[in-house]
Amino acid sequence: EVQLQAFGGGLVQAGGSLRLSCAASGFTFDDYAIGWFRQAPGKEREGVSCISSGDGSTHYADSVKGRFTISSDNAKNTVYLQMNSLKPEDTALYYCAAGSSILYCPHIKYDYWGQGTLVTVSS
Questions:
Q1: CB of 99 within 8 A of CB of 36?
Q2: Would you call 31 helix, strand, or coil by DSSP?
Q3: Which terminus of the chain is less hemmed in, N or C, by CB atoms within 10 Å?
Q4: What is the pLDDT of residue 55?
Q5: Residues 94-122: pLDDT tens digits?
């Protein structure tokens, strides 16, 4: 059974940091790209960052470039999203997803989704 578990969210003050983790199981981790998405209340879901399978290339939304860093520990089947300099507009439910493709990760279809972890940034 494919499972993606996102955790690490919480309440943090503006300017603070959080590290989200996405633990994957039930599929060959190395063959999948992993993406982080978020959805704020009343807004559409948006892609935040992703890491491609194969070459491990990464992508960031403009809104988080320079503040967020995605990384992967293939030995632990886990992808991390280090979030620094958090802003109130980063408040959202964050999801991780997996897609089986060797293409650059922003351009692929994500097949499996985990439950979200809530990030709240206070001003």
A1: no
A2: helix
A3: N
A4: 86
A5: 999 999 988 889 889 999 999 999 999 99
DSSP letter assigned to residue 26: S
The candidate with the shortest Cα–Cα distance to 93, out of 48, 30, 27, is 48
Element (H, E) at 121: strand 117-122
Rounding to the nearest 10 degrees, give the CA dihedral for residues 87, 72, 24, 12: -20
C-alpha closest to that of 12 among 116, 86, 92 = 86
Quick: pLDDT tens for 16-68: 999 999 999 998 888 999 999 999 999 999 999 999 988 889 999 999 999 99
CA atoms within 13 A on the CB side of 29: 14
Closest CA to 51 of 72, 68, 67, 37: 72
SS3 62: coil
Alpha-carbon distance 5 to 20, whole Å? Answer: 10
Euclidean distance between CA atoms 38 and 47, whole angstroms = 7
Closest CA to 114 of 92, 96, 99: 96
